[in-house]
What does this fold into?
Amino acid sequence: MKQFLLLLLSFTIVTYTNAQKGFEPGSITLNSNETLEGKIDISKNPGEAKELRFSKDGSIQTYSISDVKAFELSGKFRYERHNVSYNKSATDIEHATEFFDGPLVNGDRWLEVLYKSKYSMFGLETPDRNYYFIQEPDGSVKELRYRVKVISGVMQKDESYKTYFSTKATANNNSELAKAVALANYDEDDLLGLMMKLNGEKST
It folds into this structure.
């Protein structure tokens, strides 16, 4: 009997350990603004996930994206739910087609918070590329668009994100932002630099 109990206990521990693989300490914020501390399953890319597995006191519960307005991992990475609309597209000649736009994506996504201020910036990681979004003071979220296409072997660029920042620079008489836009590339560091100048903050 004792050997059976030990075997059962060992099986329970192994099962529990396997069930908890891929979980990291974190917290979730529900639509009611209630924050729960526990562990979050990170085995799926948040940008593609439609649900989230959350463990608290050994019990695992699955929440849909409509239930969780935000979550945070280890106090380092924070994600917020936003309704976004964008077309799948390419950023390099290897993946480009003769069209800028691919299939339309529209709906709620958990976006990684990259920068928080009057104007905020979010990132969305997908298997094909990273997308970036800006949140304006009125709360609206729009894509900082960059995409390419290839016509007769020649790559053409749509750098709408530069147009956005240039328009803001002109409207606010922000010469520092205007200079930075001209030199910027479509990558996270350069975009963060533009965001800081848009908000009137100095780079550290």
